[in-house]
């Protein structure tokens, strides 16, 4: 087999189907045998045990719920992992990575971390974006798998913790956007803006958001937040108005008063002509870097 997939929930099933669709032979295993059996078809074979699945392929993709579950599932097959490349896609933090890698390498296996930046339905399409971390030769070794998954794949470097750290940052961005959407719905329903019209307008704002990010990153790297376009003083009146509307309209726990107060604090600290990215200075400086 070209690939073994352990765990055939939504993501594992999507990986198996994408690989099979790309012409790779796939072995699948799942604790609930019926889920794995449902995938059986051209290029997909169900294995009855984890050991059988691991022995079937030199590349083992883990699509399981967390590192503890992954370790629990793999332990009975530890003797079979010698020389196998384990591609770990489980959710977790960067602190979960090292103990798992140490165990896999201790039984003779190899590890590559992966993180999908999207939903299972994107797997196998141009919209599937995946980041990897670990030895570059392992990343190159799974080129057929990466092509089958589709979209964009990026190797973040040899530090195997990077993929999960990146996923955490990406998740913060996603949930910040979700929170913004939820509050926009609240504002729209209170101001009579049709939600369909709001949804259609979202792409119009994406270029501005991207510009804010690009400029912010440049200023952070430069260590100088002065910026002629939209200095900090221009944000306070807008945030005052929005925060007041939220409070008066009963939109509780809004992020807007918090952001308004952070801008006020920055102005009190003497920042006026700086870009809004200067608010990053209000966060404690990290003492440990990845």
Automatic annotation (TrEMBL):
Domain 6-phosphogluconate dehydrogenase NADP-binding span(s) in chain numbering: 2-151
Keyword match Ribonucleoprotein: no
Gene3D superfamilies noted in UniProt: N-(1-d-carboxylethyl)-l-norvaline Dehydrogenase, domain 2 (1.10.1040.10), NAD(P)-binding Rossmann-like Domain (3.40.50.720)
Protein name: 3-hydroxyisobutyrate dehydrogenase
Domain of life, per lineage: Bacteria
Protein family: Belongs to the HIBADH-related family.
Annotated NADPH-dependent reductive aminase-like C-terminal domain residues: 159-283
Keywords, sorted A to Z: Oxidoreductase
InterPro entries found in the cross-reference section: 6PGD_dom2, 6PGDH_NADP-bd, HIBADH-related, HIBADH-related_NP60_sf, NAD(P)-bd_dom_sf, RedAm-like_C
């Amino acid at each position: 087999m070209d690939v073994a997939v352990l765990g055939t929930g939504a993501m594992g099933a999507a990986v198996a189907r994408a690989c099979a669709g790309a012409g790779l032979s796939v072995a699948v295993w799942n604790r609930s045998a019926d889920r794995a059996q449902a995938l059986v078809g051209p290029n997909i074979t169900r294995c009855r045990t984890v050991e059988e699945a691991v022995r079937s392929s030199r590349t083992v993709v883990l699509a399981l719920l967390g590192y503890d579950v992954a370790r629990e599932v793999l332990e009975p097959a530890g003797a079979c992992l010698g020389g196998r490349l384990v591609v770990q896609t489980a959710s977790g933090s960067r602190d979960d990575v090292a103990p798992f890698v140490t165990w896999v390498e201790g039984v003779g296996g190899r590890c590559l971390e992966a993180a999908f930046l999207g939903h299972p339905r994107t797997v196998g399409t141009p919209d599937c974006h995946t980041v990897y971390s670990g030895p570059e030769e392992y990343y190159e070794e799974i080129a057929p798998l990466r092509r089958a998954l589709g979209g964009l794949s990026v190797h973040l470097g040899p530090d195997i913790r990077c993929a999960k750290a990146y996923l955490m940052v990406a998740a913060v961005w996603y949930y910040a956007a979700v929170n913004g959407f939820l509050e926009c719905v609240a504002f729209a329903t209170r101001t009579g803006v049709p939600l369909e019209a709001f949804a259609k307008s979202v792409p119009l704002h994406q270029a501005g958001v991207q510009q804010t990010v690009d400029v912010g990153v440049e200023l952070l790297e430069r260590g100088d937040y002065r910026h002629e376009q939209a200095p900090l003083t221009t944000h306070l009146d807008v945030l005052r108005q929005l925060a007041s509307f939220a409070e008066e309209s009963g939109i509780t726990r809004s992020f807007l008063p918090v952001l308004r107060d952070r801008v006020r604090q920055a102005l009190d600290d003497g920042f006026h002509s700086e870009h809004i990215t200067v608010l990053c200075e209000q966060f404690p400086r990290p003492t440990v870097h990845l």
